[in-house]
């Protein structure tokens, strides 16, 4: 259980400790000024009864030393931070944080009972939000590290983008040329078949096979070209996003380096 002190108790104890320490400080000052007469001189100054002997006065002085040590120890063990929460308007002060503090929310106080900061009550919803934010931050760190390991820098990412997009462009160009050739071959097969039909002659089997084959090859070539164009568009967007992120990482590193140089001047 945390050590709990009432503010009223602390307020009542402080004057007692203050006056006790002041009283015995006066005794020590008098002893120092009357060191030649030692205990007898102190007894005369304090106007103690003549029957008080050296042993009794010495015992009083030792008691003072003990009390002074106790008060000093109490002062050194007083916490530098106090934690206060309110339950139905009733304040509770302690030297550590408990579950009650977290459920009600609490004030962090210094040794003079001044508020340092306020901690709001624990909220499951806020905790879940913070957890999601932490997970997103971790995922972002992993993605950034993977990005740097892949491209090293934004300049290299630009070079890689240019190479890959150029290769895709060449594939698209070859596909379009193939489609044109297949279109020409298909049109030729169609003309031959039409000639047979105009002359009321059956279309030869080989021409029918050419027609079917050219149609299939043209459809496949057209689909490939369309897929390549989609791939190029997606690659361009991905590279653009990666380059933006790499530049952001580079700016952050530069800012950190500048801060390190400013904090550690030669």
Descriptive notes:
It is a single chain. 74% of the residues lie in helices and 8% in strands. Strands 2-1-3-4 form a 4-stranded antiparallel beta sheet. Helix 1 packs across helix 2 and helix 6 packs antiparallel against helix 7. It is elongated and about 115 Å long. About 12% of the residues have low confidence.
Number of continuous helical runs: 7
Helix content: over 70%
Query: Approximately what portion of the residues adopt beta-strand conformation?
Result: 5-15%
Q: Structural class per helix/strand content?
A: alpha+beta
- Extended strand count: 4
The radius of gyration computed from the alpha-carbon positions, rounded to a whole number of angstroms, is 46 Å
Low-confidence stretches: 5-21, 34-39, 45-54
What characterizes the major β-sheet? Answer: 4 strands, antiparallel
- N-to-C SSE series? HHHEEHEEHHH
Instruction: Categorize the overall geometry.
Output: elongated
Distance between the termini: 51 Å
Task: Give the overall pLDDT as a whole number.
Answer: 79
| Spatial order of the strands forming the largest sheet | 2-1-3-4
Fill in the keyword field for this structure.
four-stranded antiparallel sheet, alpha+beta, 266 residues, elongated, single chain
Secondary structure: elements and pairs:
Layout: H1 7-33, H2 38-45, H3 54-76, E1 82-87, E2 90-94, H4 99-104, E3 106-109, E4 115-119, H5 124-151, H6 154-198, H7 205-263
Antiparallel strand pairs: 1-2, 1-3, 3-4
Helix pairs in contact: 1-2, 1-3, 6-7
Write a short abstract of this structure.
With 266 residues, this protein is of the alpha+beta class.
